[in-house]
């Protein structure tokens, strides 16, 4: 399940960013981008399986370049998830308040709270991890 979800996140986030900055992506470049996203999704699925099977310390195997590439992969995928989630909230929350849909309003506010909490905890853990390494 991780591979298809990652592929979807990377492709949709790429389209959102391209749309926001107003870049028209030619078909050939879009195909290459999709292929790269598919490879990254397969790689993340493999790393996820390795973590499930052998534990989180498998992320630190190999040389420093390999470790940095793994963490960069996770960071890019996380950023893609954040972009897609923020875009979803930006489109759905105004609709919920416009139509006076109380359930959608509550879910939208809870989603915003979850995104802010997740971002805060991620940044706090990263800062704590970097400060303990030095």
List the helices and strands and how they pair.
Blueprint: H1 2-21, H2 27-54, H3 64-98, H4 102-133
Helix pairs in contact: 1-2, 1-3, 3-4
What's this, in brief?
By secondary structure, this protein is mostly helical.
What can you see in these coordinates?
The radius of gyration is 18 Å and the shape is globular. 86% of the residues lie in helices and 0% in strands. Helix 1 (2-21) packs across helix 3. The protein has 134 residues and is mostly helical. It starts with a helix and ends with a helix. The model has no long low-confidence stretch (mean pLDDT 83). The longest helix is centred in the middle third of the chain and has 35 residues, at 64-98. It contains four helices and no strands.
List key phrases describing it.
single chain; 134 residues; mainly alpha; 0% strand; globular
Q: Count the strands?
A: 0
Q: Which percent band covers the strand fraction?
A: under 5%
Largest sheet report: none
Give Rg in angstroms: 18 Å
Which stretches are low in confidence, meaning pLDDT under 50 for 5 or more residues running? none
């Amino acid at each position: 399940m991780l591979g298809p979800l990652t592929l979807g996140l990377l492709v949709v986030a790429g389209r959102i960013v391209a749309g926001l900055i107003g870049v028209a992506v030619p078909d050939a470049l879009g195909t290459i981008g999709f292929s790269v996203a598919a490879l990254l999704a397969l790689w993340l699925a493999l790393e996820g399986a390795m973590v499930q099977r052998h534990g989180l310390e498998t992320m630190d195997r190999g040389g420093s370049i390999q470790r940095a590439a793994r963490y960069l992969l996770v960071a890019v995928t996380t950023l893609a998830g954040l972009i897609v989630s923020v875009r979803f909230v930006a489109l759905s929350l105004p609709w919920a308040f416009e139509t006076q849909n109380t359930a959608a309003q509550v879910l939208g506010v809870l989603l915003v709270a979850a995104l802010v909490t997740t971002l805060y905890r991620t940044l706090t853990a990263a800062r704590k991890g970097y400060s303990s390494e030095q």
